[in-house]
Amino acid sequence: MISVNDFKTGLTIEVEHDIFTVLDFQHVKPGKGAAFVRSKLKNLRNGNTVERTFRAGENVGRAHIDNREMQYLYASGDEFTFMDTETFDQFSLSREQLKWELNFLLENMNIKILSYQGEILGINLPKSVDLKVVETEPGVKGNTAQGALKGAKVETGLVVQVPLFINEGDVLTVDTEDGRYISRA
């Protein structure tokens, strides 16, 4: 058990049989009444974000999440197969479990699988990935207004807003948290 007074960003907790990670928290001490902790939590089972208020000093269960190194092998229909790099065991996750992550997954990519007591909660991507541009409009000379951007479709199907000088065949470094262009690789 852990006290809500000890919350930290990134901490994983168990509340009412669900697993959450703490995204944000704030200790509030009103002039009248008892202190409390206002928190923003992400459900690791379904990806929903909820705001929850706890009484100061209240205890919640601590969830120990396992991070195992895995390799993405291939897709077969709506199933995506991964392999444990130590034991070579294989398992599949559905398209539903990997909604956002599919924008960045490439075959043979190493990632981390998040699991809790044997239940697979999802995958943890690297902070950024390098993806090849497969389709974009050419930049038109003279369209150089400050901060001009255009859409570029990368090999996974994600459309990224990029500067005008990016061409088809370029390799981009893309942030996996928000799909934002970082630089050319």
UniProtKB/TrEMBL annotation:
Location(s) in or outside the cell: Cytoplasm
Gene3D superfamilies, sorted: 2.30.30.30, Nucleic acid-binding proteins (2.40.50.140)
Location, primary (coarse class): cytoplasm
Single GO MF annotation: translation elongation factor activity
Organism: Paenibacillus violae
Domain Translation elongation factor P/YeiP central: 67-121
CDD domains on file: S1_EF-P_repeat_1, S1_EF-P_repeat_2
Keyword Cytoplasm set for record: yes
Keywords: Cytoplasm, Elongation factor, Protein biosynthesis
Domain Elongation factor P C-terminal: 129-184
Pfam annotation, one family: Elong-fact-P_C
Family designation: Belongs to the elongation factor P family.
Pathway of action: Protein biosynthesis; polypeptide chain elongation
Protein name (record): Elongation factor P
InterPro entries: Elong-fact-P_C (IPR015365), NA-bd_OB-fold (IPR012340), Rib_uL2_dom2 (IPR014722), Transl_elong_fac_P/YeiP (IPR020599), Transl_elong_KOW-like (IPR013185), Transl_elong_P/YeiP_cen (IPR001059), Transl_elong_P/YeiP_CS (IPR013852), Transl_elongation_fac_P (IPR011768)
Function: Involved in peptide bond synthesis. Stimulates efficient translation and peptide-bond synthesis on native or reconstituted 70S ribosomes in vitro. Probably functions indirectly by altering the affinity of the ribosome for aminoacyl-tRNA, thus increasing their reactivity as acceptors for peptidyl transferase.
